[in-house]
Amino acid sequence: MTLQVSDENRVRTLTLDRPEALNAFNEELYDATAEALLAAAADPGVAVVLLTGAGRAFSAGTDLLEMHRMATDPDFVRGTHGFIGLVDALVDFPKPLVVAVNGLGLGIGATILGFADLGLMSTEARLKCPFTSLGVAPEAASSYLFPALVGRQDAAWVLLSAEWISADEARAMGLVRTVCAPADLLPTARAQAELLARRPIASLVAVKRTMTEPHRAAIRAARDRENAAFAELMGGPANLEALAAFAEGREPDFSGC
After folding, report:
1. Among 4, 27, 106, 180, which is most exposed with the fewest C-beta within 10 angstroms?
2. What is the four-CA torsion angle of 74, 77, 83, 88, rounded to 10 degrees?
3. Phi-psi region of 174 (alpha: psi -120 to 50; beta: other; left: phi over 0)
4. Beta bridge partner(s), residue 178
5. Rounded CA gap, 17 and 101, in Å?
């Protein structure tokens, strides 16, 4: 299993569980997480979803070794939902989503915070949006959600630089609401999730809907622009150089790109 699911006090906890791969999303994990969100949305006994990771990472983003196979192997079989399906499930998820970043978060492990109703982060966690270092475009509507969350210049730095962002920087920007010592992260996240879960589910859904509805069309438009740009760049010279460098354990050389 790549995803652990547990229920307590109307909170469904989803734990990304590929610790040997730093919880990187392969097609199996994308499918499992999307299915879990769809199931939680439909379950009348679930009021809140809490998402976190097992081991020392939250998520290292998309599995780059699998991404390389997707870019080079015409016979690669994609999952049922994949990355796009997970983003759709996040866009449509009607209940509060609490994200507890327990360790490093790269790519979707960082941009998923754009969909968090409450974001928490361990003091030892770090975030990175490595798109320019991979020769690709932003993802998960982060080109729209991050400027809305943190302002244009902080968002531009996060999305353009591919540099690490500390927990304190993330809190100062507004990417997360709470920063905790590692041992306090999950208890704090669960306490906040359970507080929300004691409220009427219909009211929680109504509050979230009225907050997110004005942005839904813009989020979908941003996602479509990003997907088009990503498809254009994936498999291109810069992306293939980045993936080859990752597989070979060296720094990429973009001087010819």
Report:
1. 4
2. 120
3. left
4. 120
5. 14
Instruction: Give the closest residue to 183 by CA, choosing from 124, 110, 226, 143.
Output: 124
Please give the model's pTM, rounded to 2 decimal places: 0.92
Domains parsed from the chain with CATH numbers: 3-181 (3.90.226.10)
What is the rounded distance in angstroms from the CA atom of residue 138 to the CA atom of residue 107? 9
Return the SS3 of 8. Answer: strand
| Contact predicate 43/10, CB 8 Å | no
Q: Residue 47 is encoded by which pair of tokens?
A: 């009021």
C-alpha to C-alpha distances, 140 to 11, 21, 206, 236, 248, nearest whole angstrom: 24, 21, 24, 20, 28
- Two tokens at 103? 């360790």
Closest CA to 3 of 45, 12, 171, 120: 12
Residue with tokens 């992306």: 239
Cα angle at 152 between 149 and 155, to 5 degrees? 65
